Amino acid sequence: MVKRLLYERQYPLITSLDFHLLCGQAAEAVAFHCEAHHNNEVVVEEWHPPTFEGPGCEKRRDLRFSVPLSAPTWFRKIAGTSMLRLVDEHRVQLSAEGAMHFSSAPRELVPVGRQLPLYVQTLVTEPALMEDGTRGIRV
Q: Is 102 helix (H, G, I), strand (E, B) or coil?
């Protein structure tokens, strides 16, 4: 079963690069996982390369974290854990037009490293004209 969620927001007076610089920080990833999964033991690697070398370039990093295993008690006993250990590969691509594409592909660290049925994509476009006439981005 595929579940799709569409979320759109507008942020006035910033560029897609500003958005990435703010939201792409390691502290933001830790804060997200602390709030979403009640887990602050998140390992966030540095972006490689650290900066965009130009339009059409890509940066990537890995995050390692744990999330509660949502399964019946009998399954958790068989699995021997109540937590899933994950690694999440983040990629950010910058287009020549200034749009930014973010993708997240989490997978299990143990036992076999198979791909989870979850993939997150975010497209940040600019410039967008806000309702008040100012320029900003659309996410």
A: strand
Phi-psi region of 135 (alpha: psi -120 to 50; beta: other; left: phi over 0): beta
CA torsion sign for 78, 80, 81, 85 is: negative
CB neighbour burial string for 11-48, b if at least 16 within 10 angstroms, e if fewer: beeebbbebbeeebeeeebbeebeeebeeeebebeebe
Q: Does an H or E element contain 27, and which? A: helix 26-37
Q: How far is CA 18 from the centre of its chain?
A: 16
Report pTM. Answer: 0.67
Segment 28-71, tens digit of pLDDT: 888 888 887 787 788 999 999 888 887 788 899 999 988 877 77
Of 130, 131, 137, 51, whose CA–CA distance to 97 is shortest? Answer: 137
Neighbouring residues of 51: CB distance < 8 A, sequence distance ≥ 6: 59
What is the full DSSP assignment across 35-85? Answer: HHHS----EEPPPBSSS--STT-EEEEEEEEEEE--S-HHHHHHHT-SEEE
Q: What are the tokens at 96?
A: 């020549």
